Amino acid sequence: MADVMMTLFAIVIVGYVAGKLGYLGGDFDRQLSRLVINLTCPALILSSAMTGELPDRNYILPLLLISAITYIVLTGVAFLLPRILTNKREDEGAIGFALMFGNVGFMGYPVVASLFGHEAVFYAAVLNVVNTFAVFTVGTILITGKNAVEGPRFQKKVLYSTPMIAAYLTMAIVALEIDHIPPAVSQPLTMLGNITVPAALLIIGSSMSNLSFRTMLGNHTVYATTLFRLAILPIGIYYLCTLLGFSTFVVNINTVVIAMPVATYGTILCLKYGRDTTTITEVTFITTLLSMLTIPALATLLF
């Protein structure tokens, strides 16, 4: 599993170097971000339900339920805890996003596969349905913030964005047990979806290239956020869901998904809505780096 984590982090470094050399950055990053959000990510979501393997129906509803409970809890954390972790009001949304959302689609799948086997990727995809809904609803509110005159800048059309439509369709595929998608549909979607991981990681690396080395080392707020994202919140969710009576298998997969470093969508949404990427990029960098140690440690400690 350490090899998987190092491989993903290496792509971030490539993005950093490409940004420094001028191959990435500026308008190109913004356009690539739009491509990832509106095209390749929906393809990734849909293709995750087109593996051709029929999952155990007994796990599907518990996974959806545990994910819903998890993100209800994390929503409260995301809106309350940043007020304690930082005294900069403008950073509260980015920190809240970092606390709430792990890198499920980009890093969660390969890590889950390495721990539980390839067949478990589908279950991670089921968990990702709720995550996707939350990213483009609650996550959008966290990143865009609130304005005293305009109120929340959340737009209802987000509910009908291409990632959300893909999430709805994926849920339908799961519920209806449609396990024979024609290759003419599944293969192009899979190829498009495969662009998402490297593209998103390159965007993160490129965003880092705009930061000074000292800035990338973070500050006490970044490290406090990292401690909650990689350790305190996953362990807390693990014991909460165990007490609620979920099966060990369901709790373990959900915990691994929650233990991922900060979701790359934080940086992407900041670029899309014209927000400062400094804080979200710092905490994404630090959590991605340290997750190479914390995820194996957490798996050994809890499982």
UniProtKB/TrEMBL annotation:
<keyword id="KW-0812">Transmembrane</keyword>
<dbReference type="GO" id="GO:0055085">
    <property type="term" value="P:transmembrane transport"/>
</dbReference>
<keyword id="KW-1003">Cell membrane</keyword>
<feature type="transmembrane region" description="Helical">
    <location>
        <begin position="93"/>
        <end position="116"/>
    </location>
</feature>
<dbReference type="InterPro" id="IPR004776">
    <property type="entry name" value="Mem_transp_PIN-like"/>
</dbReference>
<keyword id="KW-0472">Membrane</keyword>
<feature type="transmembrane region" description="Helical">
    <location>
        <begin position="246"/>
        <end position="271"/>
    </location>
</feature>
<feature type="transmembrane region" description="Helical">
    <location>
        <begin position="122"/>
        <end position="145"/>
    </location>
</feature>
<protein>
    <recommendedName>
        <fullName>AEC family transporter</fullName>
    </recommendedName>
</protein>
<feature type="transmembrane region" description="Helical">
    <location>
        <begin position="35"/>
        <end position="54"/>
    </location>
</feature>
<keyword id="KW-0813">Transport</keyword>
<dbReference type="Pfam" id="PF03547">
    <property type="entry name" value="Mem_trans"/>
</dbReference>
<feature type="transmembrane region" description="Helical">
    <location>
        <begin position="157"/>
        <end position="176"/>
    </location>
</feature>
<feature type="transmembrane region" description="Helical">
    <location>
        <begin position="6"/>
        <end position="23"/>
    </location>
</feature>
<dbReference type="InterPro" id="IPR038770">
    <property type="entry name" value="Na+/solute_symporter_sf"/>
</dbReference>
<dbReference type="GO" id="GO:0005886">
    <property type="term" value="C:plasma membrane"/>
</dbReference>
<keyword id="KW-1133">Transmembrane helix</keyword>
<feature type="transmembrane region" description="Helical">
    <location>
        <begin position="221"/>
        <end position="240"/>
    </location>
</feature>
<feature type="transmembrane region" description="Helical">
    <location>
        <begin position="283"/>
        <end position="302"/>
    </location>
</feature>
<feature type="transmembrane region" description="Helical">
    <location>
        <begin position="60"/>
        <end position="81"/>
    </location>
</feature>
<comment type="similarity">
    <text>Belongs to the auxin efflux carrier (TC 2.A.69) family.</text>
</comment>
<feature type="transmembrane region" description="Helical">
    <location>
        <begin position="188"/>
        <end position="209"/>
    </location>
</feature>
